[in-house]
UniProtKB/TrEMBL annotation:
Disulfide links within the chain: C51-C56
Pfam family membership, one: Pyr_redox_2
Lineage: Bacteria, Pseudomonadati, Pseudomonadota, Betaproteobacteria, Burkholderiales
Organism: Parasutterella excrementihominis YIT 11859
Required cofactor names: FAD
NCBIfam families: lipoamide_DH (TIGR01350)
Leading EC class: oxidoreductase
Compartments where located: Cytoplasm
Chief site of localization: cytoplasm
Name the UniProt record assigns to this protein: Dihydrolipoyl dehydrogenase
Length: 477
């Protein structure tokens, strides 16, 4: 206790995937913990951050609803199931999404109580510091001050705005507005063909919107393996999603009825796009302003990220930063890994994070997932490698359920046979990629994976077959 202000071993500012997990692990290690977060939904505290409230969880809920609608409309008859033309009740779909989000919020609050973590609902910010720690203010529902011996910054990120074009969340939408549409737009424009743009575009395309995507990069998903990117582009074109690459956006105007985007195409020709709604998905930026970080001299880099060392220490003693606040992929599971590792370090334990083993998943149809090195990366590094590819068309389970598009691609060291990367486009890719994560973590070879007895018939057999193909021993293809 310091001047009647409650003192904690650890104060975590932000209750997103990185923050709440870090708080729980610190509490498990015997530390006194306070977690501060200002998110409120319908007048109630809503811990979980962007991921739970306007990101991972709600987008997957809408993806599930739109996939079910599409299957009933387009695929049921293939199974001998005949129904009348289905209709979509968007408010009911959105209400289901909101219910799932609230269940997740309440689940985190339960975990805080279970682990005896003090949760404060409000904006956490630095007030002052001394040799013992940091005075943290809380502004909001639980207005107070607490003293922290250690601080974990986990305030996440926010959508990047197009210069001079604020989100009104009615016609010009961030990911948050795109998850709350009250009806299916006739035409939907998307600026940015990244993960968020592709997933949200997929939702509303399945429900009947005419979707058009403009992307500044010259190709789709440039960080994925090029073979995966080409297959994904082919799949999206088959679904009727119009994509244009290499564009430069000149202006965005909302005339009240439509949104008008003026841009130059890849050849420099002036073009226009007129749409009912526009999602701007051009990346995210660290959400740092609310912390009042200059008060204590927290150092940021030129892009606004918190500067940290290899163990997530900032320039301030006993202040750590994780997740979207620091460099690296802006992914919930990356933040979780860093949050756990920081809690371990505060408690005096050794901890290691392997950013190079963090998987990426795009929850479109088909799903896309990868972990480890791409073929282009290995080529550019001059690393000798072997490739094994197995198409889902040759997988019995995929044929049985009618999801045969895509393939598994495995990359292995030419000399040691160690798995270097796994790349998947096809059914359940987001689940199957875990085998690649395991392989990289345990130093498995392609032969190790080829010798595993997978159940039949399953999608997972495609991993085994790709491993066999690495050494030209494929059985079913």
């Amino acid at each position: 206790m310091k001047d009647d202000i409650q003192t904690f071993d650890v104060v975590v500012i932000g209750a997103g995937p990185g923050g709440y997990v870090s708080a729980i692990r610190a509490a498990q290690l015997g530390l006194t913990v306070c977690c501060i977060d200002d998110w409120v939904t319908d007048g109630k505290p809503a811990p979980g951050g962007t991921c739970t409230n306007v990101g991972c969880i709600p987008s997957k809920a809408l993806l599930a609803s739109s996939c079910l609608f599409e299957e009933i409309r387009d695929k049921a008859s293939e199974h001998g199931i005949h129904v009348e033309e289905p209709t979509i009740d968007v408010p009911t779909m959105i209400a289901r999404k909101a219910k799932i989000v609230r269940q997740t919020n309440d689940g985190i609050l339960y975990l805080f109580r279970k682990n005896k973590i003090t949760f404060l609902n409000g904006r956490g910010f630095f007030v002052t510091s001394d040799e013992d720690g940091y005075l943290i203010g809380v502004e909001g529902r639980d207005e107070t001050r607490v003293f922290a011996k250690n601080v974990v910054l986990a305030t996440g990120s926010k959508p990047r705005q197009f210069p001079g074009v604020p989100f009104d969340e009615e016609r010009i939408l961030s990911n948050e507005g795109a998850l709350k549409l009250k009806s299916v737009p006739s035409t939907l424009g998307i600026i940015g063909a990244g993960v968020i743009g592709l997933e949200l575009g997929s939702v509303w395309k399945r429900l009947g919107a005419d979707v058009r995507i403009l992307e500044a990069m010259p190709s789709l998903l440039p960080f994925a393996d090029s073979a995966i990117s080409r297959e994904a582009l082919k799949a999206f074109k088959q679904q009727g999603i119009d994509m244009e690459f290499g564009v430069h956006i000149d202006s965005i105007q909302n005339d009240g009825d439509r949104v008008i985007v003026q841009y130059k195409d890849k050849d420099g020709k002036n073009s226009e796009m007129w749409v009912d709604r526009l999602i701007i998905s051009i990346g995210r930026v660290p959400f740092i302003a609310a912390l009042d970080a200059p008060v204590v001299g927290l150092k940021l880099d030129e892009r606004g990220f918190v500067e940290v060392d290899a163990e997530n220490r900032t320039n301030l003693p006993r202040v750590w930063a994780i997740g979207d606040l620091v460099k690296g992929p802006m992914l919930a599971h990356k933040a979780e890994e860093e949050g756990v590792a920081v809690a371990e370090r505060i408690a005096g334990r050794k901890a290691v994070t392997h950013i190079e083993r963090v998987p990426s998943v795009v929850y479109t149809e088909p799903e896309i997932a990868w972990v480890g090195k791409t073929e282009d990366e290995l080529k550019n590094a001059g690393k000798p490698y072997k490739v094994g590819v197995f198409p889902f068309m040759a997988n019995g389970r995929a044929r049985a359920v009618g999801e045969t598009q895509g393939f598994v691609k495995m990359l292995a060291d030419a000399e040691t046979d160690l798995v270097l990367g796994l790349h998947i486009i096809g059914p359940q890719a987001g689940e199957l990629i875990a085998q690649g994560c395991d392989a990289l973590s345990f130093g498995a070879t392609a032969e190790d994976l080829a010798l595993i007895c997978d159940p039949h018939p399953t999608f997972s057999e495609a991993i085994k077959e790709a491993a066999l193909a690495v050494n030209k021993e494929g059985i079913n293809f």
